[in-house]
Write a sequence for this structure.
């Protein structure tokens, strides 16, 4: 028993001595500082721009670590049996990239305008110009430092651009006026915009014959409210004009008003009606947003005695005689008391009048063979016993 | 040929073989065939010379007991058939494994190792529980220490020292007489053999899934189930081969490298599996045909030599190999491991407690 104990003591002492001798072969601790570019399960990979080291630790991708331990070569590259791992600052040279931050469904990118895939999202607004410092590993860039430089001032082909303006033409694509230029904006499927809205959209610019913006996410479309309202005479493109004017011409597509040379689209009234309108000022027209007839034309005074060549009026009276020429053109003399005027009846109006018939017409004073006359735009502007 | 050479050479593990062949640019199928042949034949040195590698470490003592009782060739036959059965059992388990492999989480492996450690301690009796704990901790610290050293072949030094050298030293001190290889007839019921081989295959599968859980630890699990040397050896050698096969499958499915041979392979997908399955069947059948004859030849050759001389030669060979691999530091590591292995012999606890050398690092290292 004693000899067994002695043997054990001898063996343990020998073990101690051998271990002490062996400890001289313990390697100096290697140290490596690198950016974590991969981590899966318990394996991580650090990279410092030139050297890649793998280790059996679960680290966070995108952070810089200093690891200490035994560094050894394997057939797959350098491996560190790390004993300590601490977060650190990057002590290695970093690459610098400048571009616009963007992300697609398959991950974030930096558009320079060529696409540089980012390994993870950065703390910056989508579409903002950023300066990144980090490392390229494999096909991805691993940003470490982010500096936001605002947004692009001018649209550049292939680059994101935040467009703020008023929708001139709605739907998808929509046309947006930013105060100086018109943009054609393609929205994500299912989205559309109403004219007259002030919006902010973020999309990728394509410079074709016109500036085109492709918006890839509904989140990149923000409605800021309606465009600014102004009196008609003060409006510029993209403003909302307000006013009250007389309709001097009415077609199926537009109205012509006595207060502006611009056509008013999107509303129907009859010649002679007075309309109050709230309309979007486009490049060369107005689009009715909210319009109504405030004074119907039948309430206009009878202007048969107030001849003024070129002015709009309502005349009402009795037809004293009618003369129709061989070419179909006709003239009817309309009399009210002592006042009379020749009402022109071109064939295109499709209107015929008879003597002693009461008639009301809406149009402009003119002359016919030196005599006071009155002409209308369409057959609807003449009301007689048979029709109005 | 290479697999056969390394298989019958004492002290060379399949991973050692892989590192020796680095740079030869061998194809994945050749590497696989070599590694598989090795797992069939590494029974020879561990049986007749008492020299284990990582996969057969726990088989040394029971195998040696059978060798000493003149049943050496039976051990070889058990190993060959158990390995071949592992190849056969591997085939239907492939789909199950392909489902399980991606689900592995490191914490699960650690839990299994911890349970195994507790099982080791509490299956000893009386004061030996303390001795067992002591050996587990001592070998664990040794494992941590040796694995932290810049050695080329740390596992060689560790396992040859813990399991191989003490057997040879004990033989030298005890002055063992000449040993006959004996009859290869199996003294285990076929049904029992098949059941234990299947269990070994399952344990091998487990070992390849959990990186903290090695083939030896899987065999250790088997030692609690088996009650005699033969069934234990059946488990050990099935584990050894199954672990190799499933490690390849894990590599194909998840890219994880669970043994040294697959680290030499170029990345492959699971589509390459049918080719490997054919090679596995071919290699298994071929080695089954010549393995026993080869072992008999070697055993007869060894029989002509004095046993003390063989032991001394093998010991010298192992020491030289340690020097070759890692110089003086390798020799010192082998010495330290041998002391711990021999302490387990003196304290009379199961040598399996020396597996603490892997279990403690597995539990402590993240």
């Amino acid at each position: 028993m004693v000899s067994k104990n002695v043997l054990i003591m001898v063996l343990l002492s020998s073990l101690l001595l051998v271990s002490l001798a062996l400890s001289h072969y313990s390697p100096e601790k290697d140290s490596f500082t690198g950016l974590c570019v991969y981590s899966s399960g318990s394996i991580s990979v650090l990279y410092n721009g030139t050297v890649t080291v793998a280790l059996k630790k679960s680290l966070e991708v995108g952070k810089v670590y200093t690891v200490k331990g035994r560094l050894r070569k394997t057939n797959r590259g350098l491996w560190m049996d790390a004993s300590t791992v601490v977060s650190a600052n990057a002590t290695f040279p970093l690459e610098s990239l400048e571009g616009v931050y963007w992300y697609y469904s398959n991950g974030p990118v930096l558009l320079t305008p060529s696409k540089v895939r980012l390994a993870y999202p950065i703390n910056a607004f989508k579409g903002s110009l950023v300066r990144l410092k980090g490392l390229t590993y494999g096909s991805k860039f691993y940003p470490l430092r982010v500096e936001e430089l605002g947004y692009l001032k001018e649209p550049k082909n292939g680059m994101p651009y935040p467009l703020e303006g008023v929708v001139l033409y709605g739907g998808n694509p929509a046309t947006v006026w930013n105060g100086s230029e018109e943009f054609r904006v393609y929205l994500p499927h299912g989205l559309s915009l109403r004219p007259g809205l002030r919006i902010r959209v973020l999309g990728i610019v394509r410079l074709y014959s016109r500036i085109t913006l492709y918006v890839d996410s509904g989140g990149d479309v923000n409605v800021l409210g309606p465009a600014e309202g102004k009196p008609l005479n003060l409006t510029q493109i993209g403003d909302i004009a307000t006013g009250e004017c007389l309709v001097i011409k009415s077609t199926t597509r537009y109205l012509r008003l006595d207060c502006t040379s611009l056509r008013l689209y999107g509303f129907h009234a009859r010649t002679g009606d007075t309309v109050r309108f709230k309309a979007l000022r486009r490049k060369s027209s107005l689009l009715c947003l909210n319009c109504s007839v405030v004074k119907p034309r039948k309430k206009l005074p009878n202007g048969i005695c107030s001849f003024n060549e070129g002015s709009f009026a309502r005349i009402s009276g009795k037809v004293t005689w009618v003369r129709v020429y061989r070419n179909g053109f006709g003239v009817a003399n309309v009399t009210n008391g002592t006042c009379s005027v020749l009402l022109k009846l071109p064939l295109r109006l499709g209107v015929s009048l008879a003597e002693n018939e009461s008639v009301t017409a809406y149009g402009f004073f003119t002359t016919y063979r030196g005599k006071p006359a009155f002409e209308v735009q369409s057959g609807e502007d003449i009301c007689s016993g048979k029709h109005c | 040929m290479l697999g056969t050479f390394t298989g019958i050479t004492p002290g060379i593990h399949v991973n050692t073989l892989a590192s020796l062949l680095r740079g030869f640019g061998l194809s994945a199928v050749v590497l696989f065939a070599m590694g598989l042949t090795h797992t069939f034949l590494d029974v020879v040195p561990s049986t007749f010379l008492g020299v284990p590698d990582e996969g057969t470490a726990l088989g040394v003592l029971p195998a040696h007991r059978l060798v000493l009782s003149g049943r050496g060739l039976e051990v070889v036959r058990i190993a060959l058939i158990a390995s071949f059965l592992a190849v056969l059992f591997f085939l239907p388990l492939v789909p199950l494994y392909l489902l399980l492999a991606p689900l592995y989480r490191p914490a699960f492996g650690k839990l299994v190792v911890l349970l195994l450690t507790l099982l080791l301690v509490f299956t000893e009796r009386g004061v030996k529980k303390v001795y067992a704990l002591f050996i587990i901790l001592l070998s664990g610290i040794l494992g941590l220490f040796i694995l932290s050293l810049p050695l080329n072949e740390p596992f060689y030094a560790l396992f040859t020292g813990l399991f191989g050298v003490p057997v040879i030293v004990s033989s030298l001190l005890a002055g063992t007489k000449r040993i006959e290889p004996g009859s290869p007839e199996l003294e285990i019921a076929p049904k029992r053999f098949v059941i234990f081989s299947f269990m070994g295959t399952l344990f091998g599968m487990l070992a390849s899934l959990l990186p903290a859980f090695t083939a030896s630890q899987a065999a250790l699990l088997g030692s609690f189930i088996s009650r005699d040397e033969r069934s234990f050896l059946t488990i050990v050698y099935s584990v050894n081969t199954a672990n190799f096969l499933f490690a390849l499958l894990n590599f194909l499915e998840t890219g994880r490298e669970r043994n040294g041979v697959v680290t030499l392979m170029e990345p492959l997908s699971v589509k390459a599996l049918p080719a490997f399955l054919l090679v596995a069947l071919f290699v298994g059948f071929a080695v089954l045909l010549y393995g026993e004859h080869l072992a008999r030849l070697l055993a007869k050759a060894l029989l002509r030599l004095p046993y003390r001389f063989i032991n001394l030669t093998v010991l010298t060979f192992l020491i030289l190999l340690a020097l070759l691999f890692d110089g003086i530091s390798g020799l010192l590591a082998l010495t330290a491991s041998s002391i711990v292995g021999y302490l387990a012999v003196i304290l009379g606890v199961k040598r399996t407690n020396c597996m603490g050398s892997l279990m403690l690092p597995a539990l402590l290292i993240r």
About this structure: Chain B touches chain A through 26 residues (CB under 8 Å).
